[in-house]
Amino acid sequence: MESHEVAELFDQAVQRLRAVVESGEVDSDSDDGSDLLRRLTDSGAEAVGLAVEKLSDPERVVRAAACDLLGLASSLYMDVREEAATALILLAEHEPDPEVHWSIARALGNTFDARALPTLVALAGSPDTDVRFQVAVAVPAVLDDPPVAAGEAVLVDLCADSDPQVREWATLGLGWVSTADGHTVRQTLWDRTQDTHPEVREEGARGLARRRDPRALPLVRDLLAQDEVHTFTFQAAAYLADPSLLPLLDGFDPGPDPCSVAAFADLAVSRATNTAISAIWHGKPPRRRASQPPHRASG
Prior knowledge:
By secondary structure, the protein is mainly alpha-helical. It is 61% helix and 0% strand.
């Protein structure tokens, strides 16, 4: 793709994103130009160079689109992640607009760069719910193993956010994605098992189970008794490895998901029997988590 073609395609993506932002109406069918930005990533370094250049544009929608392009390129090509993360971190130091903050947070998660954590911690204090949501999604992707104290702390804080989706994703990140453990982490996860929203309660229970906390056993048992069971719940049951959970597997089909198959297998071993667990695999496949929401409009 020639340089002028790259520039033209980027301008078209900006026009679509501008229309979405100005309309204030965002849903799963919103055409925010993401498809054009994905096409741009095929040009590799040319697209990344253009995006970095556009980060200094005076218009916020252009800067947001540039961040989105860096995030998409980083999700596809490891060799651009360091450059993209560096540029995004520098932009965040002086960027005042929440729309751009949203794009910075999402893009930084795709870089998987631990240097992004301080920037994400700062953005976690945003009054904008959508920005905090993207931070909750992004932070686990940039954490070391074990996570540094700042990464654990920001997820703990976001687990108590006023917005249920932020709490859900922060609890998922703290409890399931990260390996953080200790009294504060477990108390945070336990608190979320009392949440007013069922999705958050599920994440809290699974997080405790991943740490083999005995308080999770009755909670995971209740989750397995539901008509629809998330794949992670089977894995949580495998972490607990309690034989009392096995009868609840009757009627479930793990499907093609290797994680579910492994979880079922682990539970079968915990019963210390050679009975083929496949005999009770039928009928009810695990529920899949919904995808992240599309690009939002500023309030």
